[in-house]
Specification:
It contains six helices and six strands, in the order E-E-H-E-E-E-E-H-H-H-H-H. The chain has 212 residues and is of the alpha+beta class. Strands 1-3-4-5-6 form a five-stranded mixed β-barrel.
Amino acid sequence: MIKTLPKEIPVFPLSNFIIFPDTTVPLNIFEPRYLQMIDDSMKTHRMIGMVQPKKSEPQGKPILYEVGCVGKITSFNETDDGRYLIALSGVSRFNLMDEIESEKLYRICKVNYENFKQDLSLEKEDIKFSDLELIFKNLKSLFKKQGYVINWKDLEKQSLDQTINTLSMASPFSLEEKQILLETPNLVNRRERLEEILKTYLLDNFRNTTIQ
């Protein structure tokens, strides 16, 4: 399967946003460079790489993190005002290798998928729903305090790997914390990292409440 994935892909640097394999996100495209990117992608493999930019540089292009996720455009609609509404389904994470010089408005990079072969594996990791009970409890508390709304019933209908990845994507974490979750090799480790990050948030909330 890795052999069929494009080695050169257009990249969409979007801060504080990640996508995981086997998850789907809606995107509202309106900037000219990304409209061009979607046009070109729809004519070829329909794939784009989502990767977070690091802290913005005063001038020039922002430096990108080394790990992102390639997604396939599975739904496409154009609005009356020229925007594109697409659904992007995550396929595999990648290591960013080199940026390719191009006259295109958007950025194109060479990528390598070898370190994330498990993203394409049909075998699911051994993890039980009971392992997520603490995460659900802590996340519900955190989401409620921060005003986030999520449909927990729909979430519980997903497979366990989709649930963990969806929570990693949707949680109100920092850019750096989301990147850590994206780069965590497997699902079991990602669940552990998710718990660790949640504990720091809940501890901070407890301290703030106590101080007040």
